[in-house]
Design brief:
Layout: H1 2-15, E1 36-43, E2 46-57, E3 63-65, H2 66-73, E4 75-82, E5 86-90, E6 99-103, E7 109-116, H3 121-141, H4 147-151, H5 161-177, H6 181-185
Parallel strand pairs: 1-7
Antiparallel strand pairs: 1-2, 2-3, 3-6, 4-5, 4-7
Keywords: Membrane, Transmembrane, Transmembrane helix
Length: about 190
């Protein structure tokens, strides 16, 4: 009987696998928490236009990914923002990696005001309008009207040069003063 028991025990040992199955083993992966900040994004003091969480990057994982925010929302610069007093200091960032120069703590709430990128339509129309006004004023000041101007049938007469100088000065002064005139009125 002892031989019979030994045969059964060796058969039981041989039938069990040498390696344990995966259900018995524990996974040894560690999930690390990525540090994040909550960002309230304003555009020219209006908003917030978006509230989102942004992960912090860098060696110590305490720098804001500024370039990602600029690209995502079409901004040319961002500023620290206080809801009571308005814009504060600009948020500077490293041009190589796009991360902020100042560190932020995990879980902080940041208020940011962004300045949108300028469209190309406004400067082009200003340049074309300036060229048209300058050309028209030169044509009116000349003693002899050019042939192409005669074909347009616009004969106002000769304007003295001092009036032209006043028009140019007034045009440049009003353009500088009324830059934000329409924005505040509309």
């Amino acid at each position: 009987m002892t031989d019979d028991n030994m045969i059964h025990s060796t058969a039981a040992e041989e039938s069990s696998p040498l390696l344990q199955t995966k259900s018995n083993t524990r996974t040894k992966s560690v999930r690390t928490m990525v540090p994040e900040v909550e960002v309230h994004l304003f555009r020219q003091g209006k908003g917030p236009i978006d509230v989102f969480k942004s992960s912090l990057g860098g060696w110590d994982q305490d720098h804001l990914e500024v370039r990602d925010i600029l690209d995502k929302y079409g901004l040319k610069s961002i500023f620290a923002f206080n809801t009571e007093s308005g814009r504060c200091a600009p948020i500077r960032f490293n041009p190589r990696n796009g991360r902020s120069l100042l560190p932020y703590t995990d879980g902080a709430v940041i208020f940011i005001d962004g300045e949108p990128k300028d469209s190309l339509i406004k400067p082009i129309t200003k340049i074309l309008l300036g060229i048209a006004v300058t050309t028209l004023s030169i044509v009116l000041v000349m003693k002899e009207t050019p042939v192409w101007m005669k074909n347009l049938n616009l004969s106002v007469g000769n304007i003295p040069p001092w009036i032209l100088a006043c028009v140019v000065i007034i045009f440049t002064r009003t353009r500088k003063r009324t830059r934000d005139f329409l924005k505040t009125r509309i």
